Amino acid sequence: MFTVLCKALSFLIVIFLGYYLKKKGVFNSSFRDAVTMLALNITLPAAIISSFSSFEKNNSLFLLMFMGLGINFIMVAVGFVFSLKKERNMRIMYMLNCPGYNIGSFSMPFIQGFIGAQGVIATCMFDTGNALMTCGGSYAVTGAALGNGDGGFSIKDFVKKMLYSVPFDTYMLAILLAVMNVRLPEALSNLISTMASANGFMAMMMLGLSLDFNIDRKYYGEIARMLAVKYAAAAVIAYIVYFVLPLDIMLKRVLTIVVFSPTSALVPAFTQKLEGSTEASAFAGSVSIVISIFIMVMLVTFINP
User: Does the pLDDT at position 54 exceed 70?
Assistant: First the structure.
C-alpha cells in the first residue's frame, strides 16, 4: 500500500506543480497548448498502442464499449431528472456535466500506472463508447430535450470530431491490429514504449495547467449540487459494477475507477453552442478534476492489490 500511495502522491504533486507554475506566470497558455498537444497526440496514443501489444481476445472487453455508451446515457438521464425544476441555463449544465468522462487525459494515466497494460486495454474499450457521447452524443440528447439554441446538432460535425480525434483513431487502429493479431516490429515497439512511459507525467502536467477556478460566486451553490448528484450517481454505478455484475476482477477495478472520471474538456464548447453558461461548465469541470483526483487515489489504494 505504501508504494501505491507514493505513486499516487507523485501524480498529485505534478498536477499541483503545473497549476502553481501557471498561477505564478512561469508557464503561459502557449506552453499549456504545447503540453496538451504532446499529451493527446503523442504520449497518450503511444500508451494505447503499447498496451494493446498484450491484447488477448475477450468478449467482456468488447462489452465495455457498450457499457461506456450506456453509462453515459444513464448519466444524461440523471442530469435531466435532477434539473427538472431548474432554469434552462442550469439544466444544460446538469445534462452535459454529469456524463462525458475525461478518460484519455485523466483516468488513463491512473490505470496505466496502477493496473498496467490489461487495465489500459479495458479503459480504451470503455472510452470507445464514451467518446461517442463526449464528442457530440450528450450534446445531441441535451439539445433535443431542451432546444438547440442557435446551433443544431450536425452529423457532419460529429463524425468530423470523431475522425479528427487522434486518441479515438488510435483506439480503432489498436483494436483492429490486435484482433488481426498484427504485431509491431521490435524496434518500433521499443520506441513507442519509450514515449508511452512519459504519458503519466505529461497528462498530469496538462491537467494542472488547465485548472481554472475563476467564476462568479452566484454559481457556487448550483455547481456544488450538480457535482453532488454526479458523484452520488457514480458511487451507485461503481457499487453495482464491483459487487453485482459478474465481471472479471480486473474489469471491476477499471470500471470502478473510470466512472469517477471528471467531466470531459469538450463540455464548455457544447455548453456555448446550446447558449448555456460556459463559465459555470468550465468551473465545474475544474472542480470535478480535483474531486476525481482524491477519489481515484483512494480507490487505487484500497481496491488495487
Answer: no
Integer CA distances (angstroms), 191 to 23, 185, 201, in order:
35, 10, 17
In angstroms, the CA 140 to CA 47 distance is 31
Tell me which H or E stretch contains 127.
helix 117-132
Residue 37 CB partners (closer than 8 Å, separation 6+): none
Closest C-alpha among 130, 206, 120, 117 to residue 168: 130
Specify the pLDDT at position 151.
Answer: 55
Chain-centroid distance of CA 59 in Å reads: 23
Average pLDDT value for residue range 45-57: 78
Q: Which residues pair with 263 in a beta bridge?
A: 101
pLDDT digits (tens, 9 = 90+) for 147-164: 765 555 566 666 666 677
Does an H or E element contain 209, and which? helix 199-210
8 Å CB contact between 44 and 104: yes
